[in-house]
Amino acid sequence: MVNTTLVSLLASLMFRIPVRAVRRKLRIGNAHEFVFSYVGLGLLGVLLARLFEEVGFWAIGGFVLPLLLARQMFFRTRALEEATQELRDREVVLRALSNRMAEERHDERQQIAGYLHDDLAQLLYRMSLHLDIAEQRLRRGQVQELDDELDALRSARDAAQEMVRALIRDLHRSPLGRAGLVQTLASYFLDVERDTGVPIKANLEDIDMPPPVQLLCYHVTREAVMNAVKHGRPSAVEVSLEAASDGARVTIRDDGKGFDPDEGSPEGHFGLKMMKERALVAGGTFKIDSAPGAGTTVIAEFPTSWLAEAPALRGAAPDGQP
Fold first, then answer.
1. Average pLDDT over the chain, rounded to whole?
2. Tell me: the pLDDT tens digits for 150-195?
3. How is the beta sheet containing 247-254 ordered, strand by strand?
4. What are the DSSP calls for 83-119, one per residue?
5. Sequence-distant (≥ 6) Cβ neighbours of residue 265 within 8 angstroms
6. Which residues, in sequence order, are CB contacts of 219 under 8 Å at separation 6+?
């Protein structure tokens, strides 16, 4: 009763709410467990007093040492439970991340298929037509017209070869296509502004990063911007990509309604965890700063060398801290 009264008075003074409201919100746990704990402590106190009468001061040591050992085992068990729960959460996030990457790969395959169908297939069809016409004119002996068709056929062949070389260069150079990270982000921001009406102020430096890191940086930026305009209701979003001491830093800042990161973002914990996992996979760091009514700032750093940062990733992955 004394404990409950003191807590109620202090909470009432700190948060300026009535004492009765604090009392109603207090939770002491299950009543049976509460009674059982106090009865057990009472019996333990009786045994300690009786033992103290028999052996004196040494009785305290006989009780304190097992209690310290039990306390240590309790904290170890609690730490193991937290680690197990964190591993389960990471497994769920990684599974969701794997599914998302599979969807993104499917989209990329669709883009390549569209490129081949719309551009390359048209050239091949033109070559087929010119070849048929050239064959007909060859049979008729129209040599002059045949030279014209052969020139057109060579031109279509050269264009098709150049398109194939460009596609191969894009596949080798960057998963973001020939535009690169900066232009791809700028194009995405224009699409967001057109669809949502939220202006996006971008300051993007062209930083040399490996293609896999560029792709991870793009997805983290896209996810953060999408969450901002979808859930934060901002008047504007600012995005900056700049060189950092250990690589590249991308910052996404909005003036929206914000949220409590400890309670999870409006789209749930997985959105934040997936962004964090993408940054950690690249060997970088991830940090989010937000509060209700104060907007949100997301900062992710990525290395400019994929292999050099592999030890950092192995060191950062176990505890999951950025």
1. 78
2. 788 888 888 888 777 777 665 655 556 666 788 888 888 988 888 8
3. 200-204, 237-244, 247-254, 296-303, 285-290
4. HHHHHHHHHHHHHHHHHHHHHHHHHHHHHHHHHIIII
5. 227, 231, 259, 271, 272, 290
6. 104, 278
Residues 6+ apart with CB under 8 A from 266: 227, 231, 232, 259
Rounded Cα gap, residues 180 and 158, in angstroms:
25
* Residue 308 in tokens: 């050099």
Tell me 231's DSSP state.
I
Helix axes 143-173, 121-140, angle to 10 degrees: 160
As a 3-state breakdown, the chain gives helix, strand, coil percent values, each rounded to 5, of: 70, 10, 20
What's the predicted TM-score (pTM) here? 0.49
From the list 103, 302, 294, 292, the residue with the least C-alpha distance to 220 is 302
For the packed helices 31-55 and 58-115, what is the interaxial angle rounded to 10 degrees?
Answer: 140
Question: Is the alpha carbon torsion for 11, 17, 23, 28 positive or negative?
Answer: negative
User: Nearest CA to 297 among 228, 215, 241, 243?
Assistant: 228
Please give the Cα distance from 66 to 85 (Å, whole number): 28
In this prediction, residue 238 carries a pLDDT of 92
**3-class DSSP state of 308:** coil
DSSP label at residue 207:
-
CA quadruple 59, 60, 63, 65: dihedral positive or negative?
A: negative
Given a contact cutoff of 8 angstroms between Cβ atoms, the answer to whether 322 and 281 are in contact is: no
Nearby residues of 222 by Cβ (< 8 Å), 6 or more positions away: 185, 188
